[in-house]
Design goal:
The longest helix is centred in the C-terminal third of the chain and has 22 residues. 41% of the residues lie in helices and 15% in strands. Strands 18-17-14-15-16-20-21 form a 7-stranded mixed sheet. Strands 8-9-10-13 form a 4-stranded antiparallel sheet. It is built from 22 helices and 22 strands. It folds into 3 domains: 200 residues, no CATH class; 132 residues, no CATH class; 226 residues, no CATH class.
């Protein structure tokens, strides 16, 4: 009866990202003007899509005292078709707003509502953070300097929009009001609720700072941050209920915790790396309890086994429903089960890191530049590669390159001496060594931008780390889940990303196309031709002769403190204390040197 297979695709989840992109493009075109944020809410949005007459009885209810049966003629919150049925209305409103924007008569038409608004221009002398034009973000002005019609984003029933100048904001708000009234009906409060939420409208303060979907968006600083109230709630939850004294947990309690922590990632993307670790630790703990399956029916267990082995055809709609039912039913059984689970070692490390991060506020602000959230053309690309003996990287944009030998103790734990991790838990995989290359590349970028920063530069550059190792690529944008060393390196990387002024992304390249980085990581030592008994050295000048790209590059020398922290992670499989990582400054990570020639091993 409520099959949603042919319903409209629901894409309101992209609204928040589109709003951030809009804000960034407004700042590109208007670097010295206030970007105002406006909000509007549609009242009871699900009541506009109607239920077919044949189905109204199925959604109705009986009022026994009055002996009356109430028919539900419209959708309600919670129905599996409410969101998809509202989607055409949402899109109609959204697509109408840019059209109505150019109708100046609408400002007069809706004057009574617009006059009720309050305005906040922010600080008397605001400092505007710069946004930089790129191929993906070109501003809001056309080639002839005319304004592209501004749009508004709608998250379910929450309308969000940005613009500069009071006259454009009024026209945008008038367009929003008109679009709502045209699609949902003109207001007639004597017989029905006004489609524009007047209560929330009266509370709206138009300004550069707004709380949007639980996040504080600041268009002056161009940041998104978590509210102090929410941080306080999470801090209390961690310190009082999940402190170091706690040894066991129930699934339902853990669900509440991860729900709270995951929300922090909206304002601090590095949190998502830790959340993935926490989910993995949670899954590992849950695997220890099979009681809920052992008590279930044989047919239920058989279907679970098929799902586990992927022995089913997802194209068959009836089987799809059965699979969804089994997974939902199993999830409920696990969640409601009263069994307690042990907080294992990795979960404790992750909880401790969250506790440290929350206690380090205001040093850790749980905020991030919009420039790091939206899609952007990278400011620079950095290539890297690792062998089992050494690693290296370079960037022709940032004009640096580097080469690093692994210590003998590290090499002794690689594939050169240990067949696999199954044979020795001390095993260090090539994936971890490749990940180190990305970490050092990022550190080199931090040093470069710290030493070559001017007021005209991009305040929030984003570098693209290019690697020929797929695992290292995934660990950069997401995180490592299985390797203990990889997870420790990821936590270390999180510490470097906290408060970083340089964003990072990653992409994969084939080994065949990663020639220069491959050559750097596989440099051979050679003795002097004049003195064969001398200590072998690396002839870097020969490498620069073979590759013109490296001639104009300076050499990046990682700091010994940084290297000692990385070697410690590889050997002990544990991340250093977060406070120690947070104390690192660009000058503590390494230095760029103009000297070339031969360097000893």
């Amino acid at each position: 009866m409520t099959d949603s297979e042919f319903e409209a695709i629901i894409d309101f989840g992209q609204s928040k990202m589109k709003l951030y992109v809009s804000i960034y493009n407004w700042r590109i075109s208007f670097p010295d003007e206030i970007i105002y944020l406006v909000l509007a809410d549609i009242s009871a949005c699900f009541r506009y899509p109607r239920i077919a007459a044949d189905l109204t009885g199925a959604f109705g209810f009986m009022f026994e005292t009055l002996k009356l049966y109430f028919l539900s003629t419209s959708h309600v919150f919670g129905s599996n078709t409410s969101a998809s049925s509202w989607e055409p209305f949402r899109r109609a409103i959204k697509n109408s707003i840019p059209i109505y924007f150019f109708r100046e008569d609408l400002v007069v038409k809706h004057k009574s509502l617009l006059d009720a608004l309050k305005w906040d221009k922010g600080p008397a002398a605001p400092k505007f953070v710069k946004a930089v034009r790129c191929e993906l973000n070109k501003g809001v002005l056309n080639d002839d300097s005319s304004l592209s019609p501004p749009s508004a984003e709608i998250y379910v029933d929450d309308i969000m929009a940005a613009s500069v100048r009071r006259k454009w904001i009024l026209r945008l708000l008038a367009a929003i009001i008109e679009a709502i009234f045209v699609v949902c009906g003109r207001p007639d409060t004597d017989v029905r609720q006004c489609p524009l939420s007047l209560e929330k409208w009266s509370e709206l303060i138009v300004g550069p700072l707004q709380i949007i979907l639980g996040l504080v968006v600041d268009t002056n600083e161009m940041t998104v941050r978590m509210s102090d109230e929410y941080l306080s709630e999470v801090r209390v939850l961690i310190t009082e209920k999940w402190n170091c004294k706690r040894r066991f947990f129930r699934v339902n309690d853990m669900h509440k915790l991860v729900g709270k922590l995951a929300q922090l990632g909206e304002a601090a993307p590095w949190v998502y790396k830790l959340m993935s670790h926490l989910y993995t630790s949670l899954a590992s703990a849950l695997k220890m309890n099979k009681e809920f399956l052992e008590k279930s029916s044989p047919s239920f267990r058989a279907l679970c086994e098929k799902i586990n082995k992927k022995q089913f055809n997802t194209c068959h709609s009836e089987l799809q429903r059965e699979v969804c039912y089994v997974m939902k039913h199993a999830a409920k059984m696990i969640n409601n089960h009263k069994v307690v689970y042990h907080i294992n070692e990795t979960m404790r490390e992750e909880l401790n890191l969250f506790a440290q991060a929350l206690s380090a506020s205001p040093i850790i602000k749980f905020s991030t530049p919009i420039a790091f959230i939206i899609p952007r053309t990278p400011s620079a690309s950095i290539f890297g590669d690792s062998s089992l003996l050494a690693c290296g990287g370079y960037s022709t944009t940032l004009k640096f390159w580097w080469h690093l030998d692994f210590p003998a103790e590290i090499i002794s734990r690689t594939l050169l001496h240990i067949p696999s991790e199954k044979d020795d838990e001390r095993f260090i995989s090539i994936n971890c060594l490749e990940y180190i290359t990305i970490i050092i590349n990022h550190c080199a970028a931090l040093v470069f931008y710290a030493e070559n920063k001017s007021s005209d530069d991009d305040p929030h550059p984003v570098v693209l780390c290019v690697t020929d190792n797929m695992s290292a690529k995934k660990w950069t944008t997401h995180t490592c889940k299985k390797s203990r060393i990889g997870r420790a390196l990821a936590r270390f990387f999180c510490g470097l990303l906290i408060g970083s002024s340089v964003g990072i992304n990653s992409t994969w390249i084939s080994t065949k196309d990663n020639t220069i980085a491959d050559e750097i990581s596989r440099l051979k030592k050679s003795a002097s031709t004049n003195d064969p008994t001398s200590t072998p050295t690396y002839d870097y000048s020969k490498l620069q002769q073979n590759y013109e790209e490296l001639k104009a590059c300076t050499f990046f020398q990682p700091n010994q403190e940084l290297l000692s922290l990385i070697w410690e992670i590889l050997l002990r499989r544990k991340c250093p204390d977060l406070n120690r990582i947070l104390q690192l400054r660009p000058s503590d990570l390494g230095k760029l040197s103009t000297s070339t020639g031969q360097r000893p091993c």
